Amino acid sequence: MPPRPLCPARFRPATRRVRLGGPIAPIALIIVLSACGGTPPEETQTATPGETGPVTGDITVFGAASLTDSFTELGEGFEEAHPGTSVRFSFAGSSSLAQQILSGAPADVFASASPATMALVAEGGRTEGDPVAFVTNRLQIAVPVGNPGRVTSLEDFTDQDRTIALCAAEVPCGAASARAFEAARLTPAPDTYEEDVRAALTKVRLDEVDAALVYQTDVLVAGTQVEGIDFAESAAAVNDYPIAVLREAPNPAGGQAFLDFVLSPDGQAVLGAAGFGSP
Would you say residue 87 lies in a domain? Predict the structure, then answer.
């Protein structure tokens, strides 16, 4: 029987650096596989399913303005639980953040103040998996200390003689305000539309308006600087807050770890203490 022909040698180029009495120089190495169809042992080794290394690096979170204080606290807790990480936040109106993400802004996690805003990002193919609702929030009337405008209900927002601030219609607190006024069958007469809920709250804190519609969590954050007034129609304007890891996240493992931390009992305790409700 004639001898079996040798299979054509296959090569895998590799490089390493050695010192030759001077500068480090690259030397090409050739690895010859001795048999047809052979695979080097190192190529057959795979990671254990579900095995992950420690979470490290920067994690960028885009969050609704109303999450500023609670997420900042969560970020500090996350960094303590995961040494070697740094959580960086960008807080603004949810609609503005959504447009930034759709325009390619790099971020790992998006936490929105409304499902509608999150839907823009999801439908644009920018979320990894389905967004998850993690808290709820409802509106409250905010007035300066002492309530100089004598505001008591949503009906006072129709008074041309009072100075009123509302969130812009395109941001979640503005959309929630519209639902509240619709439920009350009232047409407001605002003097200013603000880019996010914290801007509306600032108008009240500085005594620049008689009243504004903000989230109850923002009234809690302001403490003794403003007063909050409940109103029945807020029940028709409860916002769910969804959160998602983004598909083109620079640090997807870190983003998922932060999302999991938000959903954990510790994360939910921080959010509950800030006045958010359960979804």
Answer: yes
Q: Which residue has the tokens 């990894």?
A: 128
The residue whose two tokens read 């903000």 is 214
Closest residue by Cα to residue 58 from 89, 87, 81, 83: 87
Same domain, 148 and 225: yes
Q: How many residues are given for the chain?
A: 279
Burial of 178 (0-12, 13-18, 19+ CB in 10 A): middle
Are 99 and 188 in a shared domain? no
Domain extent at residue 70? 57-137+240-273
- 19, part of any domain: yes
Give the confidence band of 24 by pLDDT, cuts at 50, 70, 90: very low
* Furthest C-alpha separation in the chain: 108
Strands (E), the chain: 10-19, 24-33, 57-64, 85-92, 109-111, 127-137, 139-144, 164-167, 192-194, 211-215, 226-229, 239-246
- DSSP H or E stretch at residue 19: strand 10-19
The residues, ordered by sequence, that sit 6+ positions from 24 with a Cβ below 8 Å of its Cβ are 17, 18
Q: Look at the pTM and tell me if it is higher than 0.85.
A: no
Give the integer Cα–Cα distance in Å for 211 and 225. 13
Q: Show Cβ contacts of residue 267 under 8 Å, excluding neighbours closer than 6 positions.
A: 74, 77, 261
Number of domains observed in the structure of the chain: 3
Q: Token pair of 134, please? A: 């993690």
Neighbouring-strand partners of residue 22: none
pLDDT 10s digits, 62-96: 999 999 999 999 999 999 999 999 999 999 999 99
